[in-house]
Sequence to fold (434 residues):
Amino acid sequence: MTRALELRNVSKTYGSGPSEVHALREVHLSVERGELVAVMGPSGSGKSTLLTIAGSLEEASDGQVLVDGVDLATVSRSEQAKMRRRWIGYVFQDFNLLPGLTALENVTLPLELDGIPAKRARDVGLEAMEELDVAERAGRYPDELSGGERQRVAIARAIVGDRALLLADEPTGALDSVNGEAVMRLLRAATQRGVAGVVVTHEAQLASWADRVIFLRDGHVVDQTMAPPGPESLLAAADRR
Amino acid sequence: MSVPYALLALLSEGPKYGLRLQSEFEARTGEVWPLNVGQVYTTLQRLERDGLVVADDSEGERLKKRYRITAAGARELGEWLRTPPDLVPPPRDELVIKVLVALQVPGTDVPEILQTHRRHVIEVMQRYTQVKAVAGQDDVALALVADAELFRLEAIVRWLDAADIRVKQLPATAPPPVADIRAEPAPVMEVSR
Fold:
């Protein structure tokens, strides 16, 4: 398995002197293609910082960030931006769809910015939308879509093309628990097709869709879950009762 | 125990044989609640005694007989569905006791203990979520059973999170009174924090 994301000894410090804040301290994390990792921790534990650094939206103060084996510090800023568009997809809490573009145009925007011809971008975009069962809404504008549909479009945009890494910050937003579960099913399915996924959430039920849950506290990774045994273990427990 | 009411509910759809009641009970509870033939047999016996069900034929082997719900049975079922379950928790929850004890034991890293339990609960949650993930999305019974456990476990995680914050907000206390344990004065200057 390729490690789509690897953080080696990553620290992030904001400010200096007495106002210095250590958002992340010596974090090691690797996520393979096909794996979904959830990040949990109290407010201010560094969850969102970890995600923005993993997605190269922010630079680490120390340590290395490798995306698909490439150390981000060794490439130019323009090359970084290109890598971001090509390899990394983001899903945000508030969807972040551009209101003036149709659903399909929102999905294909990163491809077109990357110089992919419009026709080809359209085909690839529709393919991603089909995977998320929202292709028939391609021509609609965001304000014509339901909350669940908008989130599907946002996920389609995040997995479009040849993405290696899918990053999501509280991706179920204000959706109710059943629709939130649907989003987690989609993220899980997307990672199972060969993308590495990292989801930041404060909700244990959403985190439990991940293959692995890591726990942050004061910028440190303090703990992580073991690979869960199959569901049959619960039935065996019920039989013993 | 709600097995008698589950059987009454199945019979409210129409008369059924004892063996069919057993298989339908398991299917409707997402097969996570196994019910043996003996339980079905004794439950039907009790329901019949109380006049809540009647057998079509008073002779023959109980599981091979067909049962129907009586008017009294339907009334009883309707009342039970609307009666709130006992929500008063057991007076001593083991996890709460452990955390309370941890607060009293000198030198205990309480957040680390909370995290150990949090991880364990989330690992159990991952297993229930796995049940939903592999089941068909139309298997409502199974989803409801798994959801019930997941919400219960999530409540424990939220309690652990709240405990974490409360412990963090505790005023920093002095190191454990070594002098009391050793019955000799502690060298104050050597105590570093």
About this structure: The helical segments of chain B are 3-11, 18-28, 37-49, 71-82, 94-104, 110-134, 140-169, 178-182.
